[in-house]
């Protein structure tokens, strides 16, 4: 260990970063940390840098706040937490021993001594972790916990409070009587100190325990390993050593139990430690339990995960293309209805639970949103169009990152909230703030197993219980289960083991996405530029198709089935859809001839040619609507067709017929009757084109704040150092006029700053920012003009403009000439 020094060193008494001889403080210790150590602190506790503190003092205050310390405690494994509890138990300043816990005492308290056949290397690692998290700090050769831990860990290692704290809460007469009985000839002025000192002496405590009867000794043994509190009637009774009659009174009279309530007795910490022979825990596990599970060939894991990743991409693309044409309705609560969820599952060829997961992920990725109409619809966003053009591995990364970051849990779909309302996918009530961390915990633990090992559920949960003991509970357990299921469904795991392309996503490496994409791309099936057209009017794509071919084929044919291969079926309606989009008969047949590895069957050529021959012979317009045709016989046939009676047709000329229906209804009805009308514009030209594609705006979605990148963390440390220099640098205030107008004071400030700019001197300024906060800045003025100071701001590491009327003070730096 290098962060604390043995007694007698200069660091025991000198304040690092402060004047010699001043006792060290937590703030001064933080100030003495190197930039690399502060960077590691902000990496491990990213909440401390959001927003960046003004200086080291503000960082120390934030690091020791209750909420920040609770977050840090949740990151500790069981052994490190036991080490911290040992530091808290032995380092309480209310103990009779000096403040802090020396390392050798910690090792003894944890049972990590050479006599037990174990070394102290795990202890060194745990202490390094606690120091790096700023939960403990060195003080004159001992380790001290930050003050807030006394509140957060009131009973470390299931021990009671120190005797001094318990005795101070008793009536003075009761403590004085106890002091007379235990130390009759004490010369101490304070009876509390007398009794506390007596109870800290192991020999004296053992003697007191030996004086009580067997029932009282059993009572002590029951409280020794915690919890340290017991319940009894009339706990505050007056008891003297001579009058003690019951086992409880024997213990109260000797100070071995101290009343802490009308019916509560507490075992003092010193007594508990002696009863435990100085060991704080019955069991100390320095490492997590081993993995148990089945071994799977690593290449099988990778192939399974990559195959599932490809399935996800195909399912999402299929659904969003369908929603582009036929959007799903938005419920009044903002979610998706059960019937629409069922249709989405059918479109993606999966079950409803997996469909709910995919929908929540694509929403978190910003690929779907709602429009702003009164009857809202779920639509793809413009982000979807950009996403669709990316390489498959990059598209999967977008979905994986969205799942890792979102705090919405798809597994809650169909459950009921506290008010009895059913939760709908994409609706409210699906948020669990702990979900992102639970997912990372699960994937990180899977990553700790050797490649190809698929741990069984009990083994994984046992390791998570050791790794994150303060996160355990029913909610966390459910989140772990859903994380395992969802990771498999999204292709982050395969056959129960972590996929290699997932590992980079769990690191802070700036190249993590590139590494993951490269690993996944090597396993995904390569896009094909061909299909196999068959005689039954189908085409088989034996793998994923290149984007252009997939888009054109989806226009001319309908997807009939998916799986290892995709089957497309050519129908009269699908061919007409391509013709309506502006494709000609030669375009369709040319496309299929270029990309089919098999000859085009004659039946398919006839289907395309027949649809093309009939396409556009009839043209609809607005009358309410009209029909125009260059072939009078075809219009005569239509007028004679009994099925067309509901069209309200009337012949105006041999080539023109009008209808009482509007153009859209007329066109749709004629298609149902087997005709192929095409709409035309006012000048008689055909109106062709794809169906209208609508898009929604991406919606802001809730997500946990991600860990800052190393570059941002280093920048935050530089800002901290600059702010700390501004707050602590020795400075000589410049006198400014107290009376007079505001203008005279501003003129004096401008004169001082102009002089500093001319001499190129750095100065300190006090400033009120736009939020009304008082901040300190060290600046190098460049110019003063128009009521503004332009200067290089060392805190922001940039040139900044300051309003002169907001400057509250100016000072010369002590090292400036």
Question: Care to describe what's here?
Answer:
There is one protein chain. The chain is of the alpha+beta class and 817 residues long. Strands 22-27-23-24-25-26 form a six-stranded antiparallel beta sheet. It has a five-stranded mixed beta sheet with strand order 19-20-18-17-21, covered by helices on one side. A hairpin with a 2-residue loop joins strand 11 and strand 12. The two termini are 42 Å apart.
In short:
The protein is of the alpha+beta class and 817 residues long. It has a 6-stranded antiparallel beta sheet with strand order 22-27-23-24-25-26. Strands 19-20-18-17-21 form a 5-stranded mixed beta sheet, covered by helices on one side.
List the topology elements.
Blueprint: H1 10-13, H2 26-32, H3 35-44, H4 56-63, H5 66-74, H6 78-90, H7 103-110, H8 121-132, E1 136-139, E2 142-145, H9 149-152, H10 163-168, H11 172-182, H12 191-199, H13 202-211, H14 214-224, E3 229-231, H15 247-253, E4 258-259, E5 264-266, H16 269-275, E6 293-295, H17 298-325, E7 328-329, H18 338-348, H19 352-364, E8 368-370, E9 377-380, H20 382-388, H21 392-405, H22 435-448, E10 453-455, H23 457-467, H24 474-490, E11 493-494, E12 497-498, H25 512-521, E13 532-534, E14 538-541, H26 547-556, E15 558-561, E16 566-569, H27 572-580, H28 585-595, H29 602-614, E17 619-621, E18 625-628, H30 632-640, E19 649-653, E20 656-659, H31 663-672, E21 678-679, H32 710-728, E22 731-733, H33 742-759, E23 763-768, E24 774-785, E25 788-793, E26 798-803, E27 807-813
Parallel strand pairs: 17-21
Antiparallel strand pairs: 1-2, 3-5, 4-5, 6-10, 7-9, 8-9, 11-12, 13-14, 14-16, 15-16, 17-18, 18-20, 19-20, 22-27, 23-24, 23-27, 24-25, 25-26
Helix pairs in contact: 2-4, 3-32, 6-7, 6-8, 11-12, 14-15, 14-16, 18-19, 19-21, 21-25, 22-24, 27-29
């Amino acid at each position: 260990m290098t962060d604390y020094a043995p007694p007698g060193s200069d660091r025991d008494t000198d304040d690092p970063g402060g004047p010699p001889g001043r006792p060290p403080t937590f703030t001064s210790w933080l100030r003495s940390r190197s930039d690399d150590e502060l960077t590691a602190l902000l990496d491990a506790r990213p909440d401390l840098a959001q927003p960046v503190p003004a200086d080291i003092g503000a960082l120390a205050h934030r690091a020791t706040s209750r909420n920040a310390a609770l977050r840090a405690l949740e990151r500790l494994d069981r052994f490190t937490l036991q080490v911290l509890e040992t530091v808290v138990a032995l380092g309480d300043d209310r103990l009779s021993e000096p403040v802090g816990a020396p390392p050798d005492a910690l090792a003894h308290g944890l049972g990590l001594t050479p006599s037990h056949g174990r070394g102290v290397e795990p202890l060194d690692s745990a202490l390094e972790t606690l120091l790096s998290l700023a939960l403990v700090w060195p003080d004159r050769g001992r380790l001290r916990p930050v003050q807030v831990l006394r509140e957060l860990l009131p009973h470390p290692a299931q021990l009671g409070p120190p005797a001094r704290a318990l005795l101070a809460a008793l009536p003075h007469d009761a403590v004085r009587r106890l002091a007379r009985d235990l130390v009759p000839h004490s010369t101490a002025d304070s009876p509390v100190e007398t009794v506390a000192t007596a109870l800290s002496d192991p020999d004296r405590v053992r003697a007191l325990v030996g004086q009580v009867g067997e029932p009282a000794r059993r009572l002590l043994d029951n409280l020794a390993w915690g919890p340290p509190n017991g319940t009894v009637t009339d706990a505050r009774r007056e008891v003297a050593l001579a009058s003690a009659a019951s086992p409880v009174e024997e213990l109260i009279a000797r100070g071995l139990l101290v009343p802490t309530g009308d019916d509560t007795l507490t075992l003092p910490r010193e007594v508990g430690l002696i009863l435990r022979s100085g060991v704080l825990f019955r069991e100390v596990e320095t490492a997590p339990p081993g993995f148990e599970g089945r071994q799977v060939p690593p290449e099988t894991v990778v192939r399974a995960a990559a195959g599932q990743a490809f399935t996800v991409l195909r399912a999402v693309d299929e659904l969003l293309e369908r929603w582009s044409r036929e959007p799903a309705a938005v419920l009044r609560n903002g979610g998706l209805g059960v019937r629409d969820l069922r249709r989405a599952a059918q479109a993606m060829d999966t079950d409803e639970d997996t469909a709910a997961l995919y929908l929540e992920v694509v929403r978190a990725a910003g690929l779907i949103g709602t429009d702003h109409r009164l009857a809202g619809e779920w639509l793809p966003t413009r982000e979807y169009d950009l996403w669709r053009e990316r390489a498959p591995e990059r598209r999967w990364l977008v979905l994986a990152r969205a799942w890792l970051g979102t705090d919405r849990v798809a597994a809650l779909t169909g459950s009921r909230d506290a008010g009895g309302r059913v939760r709908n996918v994409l609706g409210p009530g699906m948020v669990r703030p702990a979900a992102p961390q639970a997912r990372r915990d699960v994937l990180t633990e899977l990553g700790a197993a050797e490649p190809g090992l698929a741990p069984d559920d009990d083994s994984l949960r046992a390791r998570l219980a050791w790794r994150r003991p303060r996160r355990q509970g029913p909610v966390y357990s459910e989140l772990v289960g859903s994380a395992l299921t969802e990771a498999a469904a999204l292709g982050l795991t395969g056959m129960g083991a972590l996929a290699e392309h997932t590992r980079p996503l769990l690191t802070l490496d700036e190249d993590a996405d590139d590494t993951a994409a490269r690993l996944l791309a090597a396993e995904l099936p390569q896009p094909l530029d061909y299909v196999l057209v068959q005689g039954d009017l189908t085409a088989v794509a034996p793998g994923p198709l290149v984007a252009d071919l997939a888009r054109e084929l989806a226009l001319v044919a309908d997807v009939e089935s998916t799986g290892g291969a995709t089957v497309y079926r050519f129908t009269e309606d699908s061919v007409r859809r391509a013709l309506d989009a502006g494709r000609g008969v030669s375009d369709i047949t040319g496309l299929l001839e270029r990309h089919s590895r098999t000859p085009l069957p004659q039946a398919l050529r006839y289907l395309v040619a027949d649809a093309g021959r009939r396409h556009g012979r009839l043209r609809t317009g607005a009358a309410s609507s009209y029909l125009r045709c260059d072939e009078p016989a075809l219009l005569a046939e239509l007028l004679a067709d009994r099925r067309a009676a509901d069209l309200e047709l009337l012949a105006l000329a041999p080539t023109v017929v009008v209808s009482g229906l509007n153009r859209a209804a007329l066109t749709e009805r004629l298609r149902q009757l087997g005709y192929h009308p095409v709409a035309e514009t006012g000048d008689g030209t055909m109106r062709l084109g794809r169906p209208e594609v609508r898009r929604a705006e991406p919606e802001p979605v809730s997500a946990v704040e991600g860990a800052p990148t190393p570059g941002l963390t280093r920048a935050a440390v530089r800002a901290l150092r600059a702010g700390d220099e501004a707050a602590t640098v020795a400075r000589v205030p410049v006198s400014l006029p107290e009376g007079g107008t505001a203008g005279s004071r501003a003129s004096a400030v401008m004169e001082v700053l102009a002089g500093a700019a001319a001499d190129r001197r750095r100065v300190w300024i006090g400033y009120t920012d736009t939020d009304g906060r008082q901040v300190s800045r060290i600046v190098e003025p460049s110019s003063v003009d128009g009521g503004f100071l332009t200067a290089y701001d060392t805190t922001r590491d940039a040139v900044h403009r300051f309003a002169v009327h907001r400057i509250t003070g100016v000072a010369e730096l002590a090292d400036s000439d």
